[in-house]
TrEMBL record:
It comes from Gopherus evgoodei (Goodes thornscrub tortoise). The lineage of its organism: Eukaryota, Metazoa, Chordata, Craniata, Vertebrata. Pfam families: Thioredoxin, Thioredoxin_6, TXNDC16_2nd, TXNDC16_3rd, TXNDC16_N. The keyword ATP-binding does not apply. This is Thioredoxin domain containing 16. Residues 134-255 form the TXNDC16 second thioredoxin-like domain. Residues 30-133 form the TXNDC16 N-terminal domain.
Length: 745
């Protein structure tokens, strides 16, 4: 018989056992009585029989025979005959001739004796059925007493078979019988293991272990090809009955995640058929891999409690909110499917467990037209949502503990450590991109990546001054650590790590080295990560200013590359670039020019702010990543919204506006809504109806929150824009919006 066919037959027969065993017992609950000669002559090949050889009719024997007769129907379901053999007084054979033999029952297969049972061990029907099946299944059910035996057995079965491990406080109990009945049906599909050792069960199970309660676990060893990896273990939470174990094993055999591409109303799985809920993870092509990992993570958490399906939005037309990411279908006939928005996997698990407990689950409410855009329209929220908690391939990232942390920091030139909390959604989003960074840095000399779960090792995190999650720090031998404060993005973190590995400020000693630094020949392998190197030039006597710049360079490390020149001929550079000392030189490679800026007596934070301000573009494209830098200037915004890149003509007109005299009072910029969809939400906050694009707007965040829009019937030219700005200054323009500039806050 094929394995699949055998599985269907096994499942079907197991259902019949629980449903019809009592009826069968009533119809065939008669104890067969034979003489010794009749019994031994009637034995059939391969058939098992439980036999009691009787010589008297004492009260104790009568009680045993009542229980034996009550077990006839149950044992016949398994093809086991139950016989009472009446011994003649003159019979002196092995089974009838000895007095102590009459205190035992015997289990035969054919005419071969398999086991002798003391009659006091067969005290009721459960004990009779359990002990009889246990003896017959000695190859299918392993009895163990130590955790080492169990671990060795698991290792021997990894990649080949699963293990069903059961603890019963004593043999002969109803739970023991239920486990043996399950092993009779499923013994060829899984390796059954039994113990009555409470100490072993406590080591294997949960902290709230109860030695008086039977327990059963499914060990998923077939999915583990690597001997070094443990088998996942799923406890059975229901009581150990024949029907419950059958249901449990059916659920363990079901796919972890079912992928569907049809209306959820039409989907039916084994979970729904067994009365359990089904959770749909709503996916789309762009996020399929991450959604699949989420579905698998949730499925393992809910294994045995609910099913999980991955539903592709691209395959069907779902008439639900785009921001809905979860759907819940229950087994109740006619019950509507609930579509919800949940932030992380903990919420999904809690949703199902609350449903099992019977708590009311709220429907997701429709959003009004005045609400913000869907999650997918905000790049930051999209990153948090799409990369929430899930299992990740972490082979390239070392896991540190309290014992290994300090030693690890000395093993490489630069050790990068992610401090995170395994329960926190943003931490898992960060962990996702951290994996991507590890892949990008694979093989890079001098940089190693590690992680610390602050939930497991809070003392380590406290000693490293980690008070919020997630935090990424780079540790360098003999130097203080650098903390990443940038955006939640792979490219941004990779840039920070690359630039952090560069010693800053780089100390230059010759004019030739200065030229190489400004042209990008120094640190050429990292040139794609820094477009504008900054050089501080000082006379050797300017010790205080030089030390301030060094401190500022350390503060900017990871974000800006800085160099330092403090030789006797620094005046040559000062004359060359027409700037008094001390000074800054900024090599703007894209524009092929070098800007010079005098440094007055400033503190290190002031120098940092000066450098940051100078590095900002003249007419920048605003993105989620750089918006905080430009808002920090606290200037009114002259912003051009467009749904595509700017053509050269419009760009030149806006640059002419920016480069004119007296234009330092505001920041001119533009936003490509295709690259930065969150801009649509900004426009929605500013205007009751979406305006036509391109749109030029004046946004003053610090003056009563007014927004002015450039006349849509005029072309965007330098002359028209300057004329409009003069009208704004004179108070001749009417604002389009009052008090709603919080969209940019």
């Amino acid at each position: 018989m094929l394995p699949q066919e055998n599985g269907w037959v096994s499942c079907f027969s197991f259902l019949l056992l629980g449903t019809y065993s009592m009826a069968a017992a009533r119809n065939a609950n008669t104890l067969l009585e034979l003489s010794p000669r009749e019994y031994f002559s009637s034995l059939q090949p391969g058939r098992a029989s439980l036999v009691y050889f009787s010589r008297d009719d004492s009260p104790g024997v009568r009680l045993f025979l009542e229980q034996l007769e009550n077990s006839v129907g149950a044992l016949q379901d398994y093809g086991i005959s139950v016989v009472k053999v009446n011994c003649l007084k003159e019979d002196v054979s092995r089974y009838c001739g000895k007095e102590n033999a009459l205190m035992k029952a015997y289990l035969f297969r054919d005419n071969i004796l398999l086991r002798e049972f003391p009659t006091d061990a067969l005290f009721d029907v459960n004990a009779i059925v359990a002990n009889t099946l246990f003896a017959l299944l000695f190859n299918e059910v392993k009895y163990i007493t130590t955790l080492v035996e169990l671990q060795n057995l698991e290792n021997s079965l990894k990649g080949r078979s699963n293990v069903v491990f059961a603890y019963v406080p004593a043999v002969g109990t109803p739970e023991h019988r239920a486990v043996m009945e399950a092993a009779f049906v499923y013994g060829t599909a899984h390796q059954f293991v039994l113990t009555t050792e409470a100490a072993l069960a406590k080591d294997f199970g949960h902290e709230d272990f109860d030695a008086l309660s039977a327990q059963l676990f499914f060990c998923h060893c077939q999915r583990v090809p690597d001997l070094t990896q443990p088998c996942r273990r799923t406890p059975m939470v229901q009581s150990l009955t024949t029907l419950n174990i059958h249901t449990y094993l059916k659920l363990m055999a079901a796919p972890i995640v079912t992928e569907v591409a049809e209306d959820p109303e039409k989907v039916s799985t084994i979970h729904l058929q067994l009365g359990l809920p089904l959770v749909f993870i709503l996916s789309q092509q762009e996020t399929y891999e991450s959604d699949k990992r989420t579905a698998e993570f949730v499925a393992w958490q809910l294994l045995g409690k609910a099913g999980v399906a991955l539903l592709s939005r691209d395959s069907i037309d779902l008439n639900v909110l785009l921001r809905s990411n979860i759907a819940l279908k229950t087994a109740e006939e006619g019950a509507p499917i609930k579509y919800l928005v949940l932030e992380d996997t903990d919420e999904i698990v809690a949703l199902v467990e609350d449903k099992i407990k019977g708590e009311q689950i709220p429907e997701d409410e429709d959003e009004s037209d005045n609400n913000d855009q869907d999650i997918q329209d905000d790049q930051v929220m999209e990153a948090v949502y799409r990369d929430r908690k899930r299992e990740l391939p972490l082979e390239l990232i070392r896991t540190l503990t309290e014992e290994t942390f300090n030693a690890a920091l000395t093993e490489t030139a630069h050790m990068v450590v992610l401090f995170y909390a395994s329960w926190e959604a943003v931490s898992l989003a960060m962990l996702q991109l951290y994996v991507e960074v590890a892949v990008a840095l694979k093989g890079t000399q001098g940089i190693s990546l590690a992680k610390v779960n602050c939930w497991d090792w809070p003392d380590v995190c406290m000693k490293q001054n980690v008070t919020q999650f997630p935090i990424t720090k780079m540790y360098e031998k003999g130097a203080r650590s650098l903390t990443y404060t940038g955006m939640l993005g792979t490219a941004e973190l990779l840039r920070f790590l690359r630039l952090s590995s560069i010693s800053c400020p780089a100390k230059l000693t010759t004019i030739e080295e200065v030229d190489e630094y400004l042209t990008g020949e120094v640190h050429a392998d990292s040139s794609s990560y820094h477009s504008t190197p900054v050089l501080g030039i000082f006379h050797p006597s300017m010790k205080e200013a030089r030390e301030t710049f060094v401190e500022a360079g350390n503060m900017l490390r990871g974000y800006v590359t800085t160099g330092l020149y403090a030789e006797d001929d620094a005046l040559i550079l000062a004359h060359k670039y027409a700037v008094p000392l001390p000074a800054l030189l900024l090599a703007r490679r894209e524009d092929h020019r070098i800007d010079s800026i005098p440094l007055s007596k400033q503190s290190a934070p002031d120098v940092v702010q000066t450098i940051r301000s100078q590095l900002l573009e003249t007419f920048p494209e605003i993105t989620v990543e750089n918006l905080p830098d430009y808002l920090s200037l606290e200037k009114p915004l002259l912003i051009l919204f467009n749904d595509r890149g700017l053509n050269q003509s419009m760009r030149m007109e806006m640059l002419s506006v920016v480069n004119g005299k007296g234009r330092e009072a505001f920041l001119a910029c533009w936003m490509n809504l295709k690259n930065t969809p969150v801009g649509r939400g900004v426009l929605k906050a500013y205007f009751s109806t979406p305006p036509p694009l391109p749109l030029l707007a004046w946004v003053n965040r610090h003056s009563s929150g007014q927004v002015f829009s450039f006349p849509s019937d005029q072309p965007v030219t330098e002359t028209n824009v300057l004329s409009w700005l003069e009208k704004l200054k004179a108070g001749l323009e009417i604002p389009s919006v009052h008090g709603r500039t919080g969209a940019f806050v």
